[in-house]
Amino acid sequence: MRWLLLLAFIVAGVLFRWLPHPPNFTPLLAMALFAGAHIQHRGLALAVPLLAIGLSDLWLGTYPGMWAVYLGYALIVVSGFWWFKGSAGLGSWGHRAALLTLAPFIFFFVSNLGVWANGLLYPRTAEGLWLCYVMAVPFFPATLYSTWVYGLVLFGGWSLLEKLQPQWLEVQALSVRVKN
């Protein structure tokens, strides 16, 4: 059953990128953070969002700076490992809110660094880097809002499952670190 849940995350991530949506409004950052926080096997935690991105990119196509997008998602997963490495971090909605806010900023800076580094849109100068970030600002609110919306669904849904069906989560063994 655990594999079914992981597969559902990947399929959902792919579908949400394929289906029409407002620019940058997808569950993938929240999913990456959730994977880092709840999937104990670090390789699997990294694989879930990266497979969702990779599979959807097969259909959407390649683009300059892909490496930075994948790096951004990987850093979000790793931040989930680091931030939630103990029950104290996971038990606090304040910690969750902080990382749900920080994750879009991490992704913004890393992914747009990739846009600038490819040199196709902006000169590889300090001014070009600044301009790249400034031009990306209009896309940031959707990234932040989607991370919050989907993060609340994922983390809130998990908390609800813990309260209503704790034996189901024990059987699934996705996370023994989750304690509320």
Question: What would your notes on this structure say?
Answer:
- There is one protein chain.
- This protein is mainly α and 180 residues long.
- The chain has a single domain, classed as Arp2/3 complex 21 kDa subunit ARPC3 (Orthogonal Bundle), CATH 1.10.1760.
- The chain is built from 9 helices and no strands.
- The longest helix has 25 residues.
- It is globular and about 55 Å long.
- The C terminus is likely disordered.
Give short descriptive properties of this protein.
180 residues; mainly alpha; Arp2/3 complex 21 kDa subunit ARPC3; 9 helices
Would you list the SSEs in sequence order as H and E? HHHHHHHHH
Task: Count helical runs.
Answer: 9
Helix content: over 70%
Mean pLDDT: 83
Structural class: mainly alpha
Largest sheet: none
In terms of topology, how is this protein built?
Blueprint: H1 2-18, H2 28-38, H3 42-60, H4 66-83, H5 87-90, H6 93-117, H7 126-136, H8 140-164, H9 166-172
Helix pairs in contact: 1-3, 2-3, 2-4, 2-8, 3-4, 4-6, 6-7, 6-8, 8-9
At a glance:
With 180 residues, the protein is mainly alpha-helical. The chain has 9 helices and no strands. It is globular and about 55 Å long.
